[in-house]
Write a structure and sequence with these properties.
Elements (H helix, E strand, L loop, with lengths): L1 H21 L6 H26 L7 H16 L4 E2 L2 E2 L7 H25 L3 H20 L1 H4 L5 E2 L4 E2 L2 E2 L5 E3 L2 E3 L1 H25 L1 H11 L1 H6 L4 H27 L1 E2 L6 H14 L4 H20 L17 H19 L11 H4 L1
Antiparallel strand pairs: 1-2, 3-8, 4-5, 6-7
Length: 352
Amino acid sequence: MSELLRGPRTYGWAAGALVLLALPFYLDRFWLQAGLFAMAAAVGAIGLNLLTGATGQLSMGHAFFLAVGAYGYCVFAGDGGSAGGHRLAGLGLPTWLAAVLAVLLAGVAGGIFSPIAGRLRGAYLGIATLALIFIGQHVLFDATGLTGGFNGRDVPPLSLFGIRFDDSVTVVAAVPFQSSEKLWYVALAALLGCGLFARGVLRGRPGRAMNAIRDHRTAAGVMGVPVARYRAAVFVLSSMYAGLAGVLLALIFQRTVPDYFGMTLALEYLAMIVIGGLGSVAGAVVGAAFVSLLPQVLTHYSDGLPLVSEPGAGGVAPGEAARYLYGAAIVAVVLFLPGGLTRPTLSSREKK
């Protein structure tokens, strides 16, 4: 029976992969940008779900590690220049190497904070990680030589295998490929790799240990699980996922600004994993797609939607309307679908 079920499921995944590979040939720039934002958000949400959903460490500072990845890439890949009268730091490294180093830098930042995370749990850990947002915002606005300050700084385009992922036109099968079309495959590969790796972690021995720590920390230690080591390792891994998401977002935006990496972004990531399903890779992807696509879809169709309009036009702004809707979705999920939209298997403690 399992072999019979495996066949259709495999064909379904293969068909889905082919559709995703073909989309840049048919979608316009708006939908490609929306899909890119959703994939970048999904990478960060998977990392947060490993930390909060699977291990039970509440983090409200995920946006800080996204900022480390985004600005780390700009500093490693940038070649200097100036912005707003300030000289910008830049090492001029190859962009692929800069992306790798930015992800590692986010992991180092997570490793520095992990001893604090190991000593705290629950709301206290959430409050401690919340401090990272305030610290990060202060640094982003004031370290003008690194970040460009309030106006941000330009993002060097990625160059990989001789392909430059900018707005220069490359014709493929009579279709002009610009930055969005080219970055689509980079983001898709990153999401696929991150999703498969996280899925392997959760289904293996580390995943069982993480769930044991989440359900009963003391009992996990008694059973021989090195609790402190696992909590630190998952925090570093989650930070690296966030760093990669930050790099992808920087490449998509083509400019980094400090305002983006604030409290709103941190709360949006928590909304993603709650709506999609805690402790589930699929849940992180579904939640990220819902939260990231909703404001863009509302903006795109604001002219035809009731009560939704541009700011100052007498209705609710699309971004504001999106926050109302996914706020209501969180309440509905908590009340009626505690496992999230993907309905992952609940632990025995959660069932009680």
